[in-house]
Amino acid sequence: MALRSRLDQILGNLSAWERVPLNPRISEVVEQDGYRREAVTFATRPGLDAFGYFLIPLANAANDYAGRRPTVLCLPGHGRGVASIIGVAEDGGQRLVGEPEEYANDFALQCLAQGWSVFALEQISFGVRRGVTDSMDAGASSCVPDSMAALMLGETMIGWRVWDAMRSLDYLTTRPEVDPNRLMLMGISGGGSTGLFTAALDTRIWGAMISGYLNTFADSVLAIRHCVDNYAPGLVTIAEMSDIAGCIAPRRLFAENGSEDPIFPVEAFRRATAKVSEIYTAFGASENFAYEIFEGGHLFHGEQAFPFLKEHLASEG
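Given the sequence above, the corresponding structure tokens read:
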């Protein structure tokens, strides 16, 4: 697809990057209620490592899957990073799988509750992968200096994060717990950005759920102040967000947006989803795209997304 090739080039010519050996290292294994959590580090590029948590339902956990499972790459947005989506509180406490909490951000645990395995990736500039920042606050990122460094190298922060996500998929395909034909991704905000571009570029993704990101460039990142990690030189000259989402067709895609989201306006979300629907219809796959507008702001919701993915998994055996 011509657009996929152009996106690859604009984000930093990812297809030319060296896929170094992963050399995965597991530094910690913790058994929680119903699942095992492994802290994993692996190489992505020469001299650069990625970090995340692999969460695997235990054999005696109640679920519909055995052996190789559908697996979700979970991507956090700005904030405390990966700790928040696996349910680790600021005081170190751990939320349980299935423990109710309205608009819970720990969607990695919500994926586990479906019986899926999960890789929760710490994105560059977030959490434990922060560089030097002006703030000691746990939610501060180092997006500005890191994104500027990417540009100085002729690359982009979007490209860096997408590459980490792709290498995460490389790692997941080595795991015996993972069904390589049922790889999904899920992301909120900055994680939604990485998720959208990753699913557009990497056809190994069976299905994607994008929360708080799918919109229009014209009404969001070009009209409202956003983090510098959202920008790539020349991007809007070749595509709108709906075009990028169209690169995922005919694979499964679910998008959601809060009715009061201050940085991704809901009316622009409506326009974007209308265009994505047209693309999926042109592919003869209208049933593979769905979306939800929920009452709330810039939040992860998931109420309709999980049934959408589960129904498609069940329909395909």
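Residues 2-315 form a domain with the Rossmann fold fold (CATH 3.40.50.1820). Try to locate this feature in the token string yourself.
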